[in-house]
Amino acid sequence: MLDAAINSINACPDNYETFKNHVWKSATASIPRSGRKQYIPCLTEQSKTLYSEYKQAYENDPFAEDTIEIGESLLSSIGSEKRDRWQELITGIDLTHNSKKAWKTIKKLNSESNTNTSIPETTPNKVAHQLLLNGKPNNKPRGYKKKLKEDTNKIMNESSTQFPPFSIEEVDAGIKTIKLGKAAGIDGITPEMVHHLGPRAREWITRLFNKCVITKKVPKVWKKTKDVALLKPGKDPKSPKSYRPISLLCVLYKLYERLIMTRISPIVDDQLSCDQAGFRPGRSCCGQVLNLTQFIEDGYENQLKTGAVFVDLTAAYDTVNHKVLLFKVAKMIKKHHNNQSPGISA
């Protein structure tokens, strides 16, 4: 249905809104929607038969011996099924093979059934104002921003290397990495919708991504986020600083970023310090702790003292200067291409 609807739509950022509407229309028509008016947990086929008999007997005489006997049999059958399901649930908790599933089950078991929804003691405007203060740069010399922009554009314009167009295989591989069950962005397209896109829709997305690279322009809705402020554990709910903002990006925009990241990560990763472990595959906090412990033990063996400084930056992610970060990444990519030399083999 969607593949036929987008045949005549040109793949460009300006037509993304039309594409989104067709996705929603197809999803509404294709995804079944139903609800159970009555649901009794642990009702097996045998229990269903007993339940039907009990309803009939109850209508005839609620206090008859047969009605009471059938009711007791029904409760016994449901109770037996509950015990079997509980044993199956406990047996299935395996931290060795699937720790994520196990911890998810444990979290459900520990969660309180009657959680009181507390009213936030601060307003969204106060939290937003605090985020603006966190991202406000320090005083820079006059003309700093202009020079930084000129230097970044100069590096990008000097590069003779063309960005190869994305292939449908890259898009398919990227879609497979999208996790299901995550929240949608402001366009309302969920990960499940993207996973079930047909071949023509995936080709349309591929052409859209390539058009974004050529024109250096993305759909306007991709620049908007749905922000949710979560209270940090143990923090004062009255203070705007106590809230951690979570930005929900559009799923297709995250896919576009991931494809670009896959292209540039091998280039950038080779130029990063070997001591840096944050957001790098194959590295973790546990590895850094192990390295520090080993370094201290080596110092003991050589009669040396080891000093360590632990720094916790306030609002570290909110204070990142993205323009400087872009400039550094551009320099890394340029350096990589400048160091390449052509080779001739016979």
From TrEMBL:
GO terms under biological process: DNA biosynthetic process
SUPFAM superfamilies: DNA/RNA polymerases (SSF56672)
Source organism per UniProt: Petrolisthes cinctipes (Flat porcelain crab)
Record's protein name: Reverse transcriptase domain-containing protein
Domain Reverse transcriptase: start-end pairs: 211-346
